[in-house]
Fold:
Amino acid sequence: MHIKFLDPSQNKLIGPLTNLPNGGKVQVSGYAFYPRLFLQDNFFNGSIPRSLCRWKDLVILDLSKNRLTGKIPKCLVNLQKLEGMRFSLNKLSGVIPGSIALFSSSLFGLKLNDNKFTGKLPRELGDLPGLTILDLGDNEFFGHIPEWIGEKLQDLMVLRLRGNNFMG
Structure:
């Protein structure tokens, strides 16, 4: 089964995210429709499943407003067509992996706010030139707000860093 759009958001689905269908590109009359996965506003728990890494043509991934825990799987760098990733309002933790910069240059929206991420902001985020929205607010980041944000992210329109432990 090839799903081009899956949206069971805003239900009361509960439990771990397992048995997701394989993603893929769907051709209709010469046009390609790229899959979007909206799973926000449910009660999913556990970690982000590595099975999502098989959705190589995924354009939007929204797992916000759930109860997900653990770290961002490094294998998500396989999602080279990803334009938007929203993991807001979960219980995700750890550092943002530097491999996040290996996402496609088409990533324009990254929302990781309202989690439990910690550490310094990875310099590799500056290697996402198309980023227009970066929301890292309400986490546990620390250190100085890096200068590379203003220098490298020239297309940035929304930067949200509130509710962290930045200094300077």
Observations:
- The CA atoms of residues 44 and 99 lie 25 Å apart.
- Helices lie at 148-152.
- The radius of gyration is 16 Å.
